[in-house]
Amino acid sequence: MTLTIGLTGGIASGKSTVTEMIRGLGIPVIDADQVARDVVKVGEEAYEQIIKTFGQDILQENGEIDRAKLGAIVFYNEQERKKLNAIVHPAVRRRMLAEKEAYVQKGAKTIVLDIPLLFESELTHLIDKIIVVYVDNDIQLERLMKRNGFSEEEALARIRSQMPLHEKVKKADAVINNNGTIEETKQQLLQILKEWNAL
Ligand SMILES: CC(C)(COP(=O)(O)OP(=O)(O)OC[C@H]1O[C@@H](n2cnc3c(N)ncnc32)[C@H](O)[C@@H]1O)[C@@H](O)C(=O)NCCC(=O)NCCS
Ligand SMILES: Nc1ncnc2c1ncn2[C@@H]1O[C@H](COP(=O)(O)OP(=O)(O)OP(=O)(O)O)[C@@H](O)[C@H]1O
User: Fold this and answer.
1) Domain with 114 in it: what CATH number?
2) Cα(147)–Cα(31) distance, rounded to whole angstroms?
3) Which residues form the domain of 101?
4) How many domains does the chain have?
5) Best label site of 8, 49, 179, 192, fewest CB within 10 Å?
């Protein structure tokens, strides 16, 4: 039996930092942000639907989707965001399920699915246990502005487009508090994986 762990949190709460650690332990990770990029590549069905819905203006000169332009639309307008989610999420769900099955077939002991919108996009049925990576609001804002070079307004638009982190914490089987140092975060991760016999 494979243990499937869902790793979630808020934007810039530290999911990628934690998945790096998990990969370092030899546990496979499927990254929903990466899958969401793959399913909108030129020629994919979701790519065509995005152009139909948002027009040619959101394309770069080489025909690829201009993510900054699309982000500037969807993170400021809930209706537009819902339209994009309705196109991208079903394709993400299908591919995540297929990738997960491939690891299960190979007999992996543990798999981690890194899904920022785990609760928002109805993917909880894919997993057995949920870890939420938590940070305080002010630290999240500061790290997001620093990492992406966003203004406070740009960062807040993204944070506000997600379920509040304290609500995600209530739905978690385990919480990693990432307010502290990277080492403190790693110790919490190891403790959880040991408790779940996931190593
Ligand atoms: C709007 C897009 C083009 C912006 O791309 P960009 O390269 O700037 O951001 P990236 O994809 O790396 O996402 C960064 C973070 O933004 C947050 N985020 C992304 N999409 C959404 C969304 N629809 N709603 C809320 N938060 C989101 C997540 O925390 C994610 O980790 C892109 O995020 C997208 O296509 N989103 C829709 C698909 C989706 O929901 N992806 C999330 C995982 S399923
Ligand atoms: N404990 C920590 N101490 C200091 N900086 C940290 C810590 N954890 C993460 N960071 C930094 O905060 C930023 C956000 O972390 P990370 O990219 O892991 O978040 P994420 O949840 O994967 O974000 P996204 O949802 O956008 O994919 C990064 O620049 C990372 O280097």
Assistant:
1) 3.40.50.300
2) 19
3) 3-195
4) 1
5) 179
